[in-house]
Amino acid sequence: MGTITRAAVVGFGTMGRRIAHLLLRNGVAVRAFDVTGISATKDLRAQPAEFRVAESLQDCATGADIVIEATSEDLSVKQDVLGAISRATGALIASNTSTFRAGVLEGFVEQPERFVLTHFFNPADVVPLVEVIRAPSTAADTVQTVLDLLHRLGKRPVVAGDVEGFIANRLQAAVLREALSLVDQGLASPEDVDAVVRHGLGPRWSVAGPVGVADLGGLDVWQAVCAQVFPTLNNGSAPPASIVDHVRAGRLGAKSGTGFYDYAEGADRRALAAMEELFTHLQEPESQPERERDVETAG
Question: Phi-psi bin for 203: left (phi > 0), alpha (psi -120 to 50), beta?
Answer without folding.
Answer: alpha
